[in-house]
Amino acid sequence: MNKGLLIALEGPDGSGKSTQIALLEKYFLDKGIEVVRTREPGGTKISEKIREVILDNDNKEMDDMCEALLYAASRAQLVSQVIKPAIAAGKVVLCDRFVYSSIVYQGIARNLGVEKIKSINDAALSGLEADFVFMITIPYDKGIERKRNQKTLDRLENGGDDFHKKVFEGYTKISEMYDKIELIDGDNTIENIHKEIISKVESIVKI
Ligand code: ADP
Ligand code: TYD
User: Which of 32, 35, 167, 186 could form a disulfide with 138 if both were Cys (CB 3.0 to 4.6 A apart)?
Assistant: First the structure.
């Protein structure tokens, strides 16, 4: 591998993204490849502060457009401070969520419109694209049930059944819109999902 790589994991809450990111990090480190692991919203000091504001259960009155702009603001800081420099240095960047989350959650589930969310995020990304986008699919009720067993739910996770149903439908919709998105069945063992992701990366990039 002689150039940087951006791999993003996408999918509904509880689909297993963070679990797979941890395994991917180990896979690359074992091969002696430098890895930068990050998450959205978050991944920098400023972006983690924005994350706190977005996910705070107290912020019930947050306007949907304010929410969308905060996600984009967190992303802009992460892209310029962390992702672009890491890729320029030839590292592998593993992103727990990326712009596709905004297209689904804010564009489709919050009904702000895919085009509007894309244009806000074009500004945040300033030309950056992921090399791989793996979208882990899982029935919406199963994902949120896993989250409930793992932690206290945040403001978005507490969005209710209708919201999570729309998120699930949104992911299905965007997987048909973007050729780049590789679908991965999340209703499988953690190890099998890892093997599937690795085999897709290795089929395209010489590691
Ligand atoms: P996400 O980052 O997509 O929200 P996590 O990786 O945090 O999801 O996983 C949510 C919960 O589900 C965790 O408790 C994790 O151990 C569990 N989990 C992850 N992947 C699987 C899987 N393939 N099968 C069963 N449980 C899983
Ligand atoms: P996440 O960090 O995946 O939650 P957790 O670590 O608790 O599993 O994401 C937080 C929430 O933010 C999640 O419900 C999805 C939502 N989200 C958006 O609505 N838009 C976005 O652009 C991103 C990145 C996340």
Answer: 186
